[in-house]
Amino acid sequence: MGSDWFRRFGPAPDSDVRLICLPHAGGAAGAFLALARELTPEFDVLSVQYPGRQDRRREPPLADIGLLVDALAGEMAPLADRPHAFFGHSMGALLAYELARELRRRALPGPCHLFLSGRFAPTPQGSDSDRLDTDEKVIAMIRRLGGTVGKVFDDPDVMEMVMPPLRADYRAVGAYTWQPGPPLAVPVTVLVGDQDPVVPVAAAAAWREHTTAGSDLRVLPGGHFYLDQSVPEVAGIVRSALRATAVPGPGWRALLHGESPVGTPGPQ
User: Fold this and answer.
1) Burial category of 76 from C-beta neighbours within 10 Å (exposed 0-12, middle 13-18, buried 19 and up)
2) What is the dihedral sign for C-alpha 215, 218, 224, 225?
3) Domain-by-domain residue ranges, the chain?
4) The pTM is what?
5) Keywords in UniProt for this one (predicted)?
6) Active site amino acids
7) Contact status, residue 263 vs residue 247, Cβ threshold 8 Å
8) 135 and 143 in contact (C-beta within 8 Å)?
């Protein structure tokens, strides 16, 4: 694939539609392994590998949402040869949204669908809840969110490896300020756990204000990491939405050359 930013879990399938997954704060590409296995080979599933973790652990993590978005936007051109969608969880949802906005600013083909999971919609006021400026606050938040990631803090050696990217990611999210602009023209599916301790359902539903193409709210059983126990259900939601909104074929190729045929998803 030729990029440090994307991982594919197996051979590239002969798929008409690509799904690009963006992990949560402190997460790595492997967070979407189970979902990729459910959706492949119907879709070509790629997962983003942020700097500072796993096979990129020697690289300094990027503690700024803008820098992450800019880097990802620069890597998107080879992946825009077919309709593609973004699935972002928690911090990844914020990145997916801002990446779609950045691609629109650059007049590049954007996603045909956004799946925004485990994240409240941005507002002009922002949120102080993400301003975790000490290791103790970060660890307390991770334990509150639950999921298997919280167990790493019981192992000092593992903790030493995971803290640098965790610090950077929470610093990036905490410093994020939403810049007003026109809403996207991209269909959005919002997913949230019904027991998420930091993302109320109403706050997640507010993503509908950021698109003119309609939004669908899906509330699943579980907490912040509901996906760990609901992979088949989430895969079904993704599959159904992409079958309805991704339109591969000649129209998409024409779009890449600056045309916008009626009924074909355009650069967003």
Assistant:
1) buried
2) negative
3) 6-253
4) 0.87
5) Hydrolase
6) 90
7) yes
8) no
Between 116 and 156, whose confidence is greater?
A: 116
User: What confidence tier does 156 reach under pLDDT thresholds 50, 70, 90?
Assistant: low
Q: Using CA atoms in the order 39, 19, 149, 199, what is the torsion angle rounded to 10 degrees?
A: -110
| Three-state secondary structure call for residue 85 | strand
User: What does the alpha-carbon distance between residue 45 and residue 38 come to, in Å, rounded to a whole number?
Assistant: 10
Of 168, 140, 225, 133, residue with least CA distance to 25: 168
SS3 call for 195: coil
Alpha carbons 234 and 238: distance in angstroms, whole number: 6
Give tens-digit pLDDT for 229-264: 999 999 999 999 999 887 655 444 444 444 443 333
Per-residue pLDDT of 70-108, as tens digits, reads: 999 999 999 989 999 999 999 999 999 999 999 999 999
Helix extents (H) in the chain: 33-39, 65-74, 91-105, 135-145, 156-175, 201-205, 231-245, 250-256
| Nearest-angstrom CA–CA distance, 257 and 268 | 15
Considering the domain 6-253 in this protein, what is its CATH number?
3.40.50.1820
Q: Is the pLDDT of residue 43 over 50?
A: yes
Residues 6+ positions from 120 with CB-CB distance below 8 Å: 127, 199, 200, 203, 204, 206
Q: How many other β-carbons are positioned within 10 Å of the β-carbon of residue 244?
A: 10
**Interatomic CA distance for residues 191 and 240, integer angstroms:** 14
Structure-block tokens of residue 27: 């997460």
Q: Are 243 and 15 in contact (CB under 8 A)?
A: no
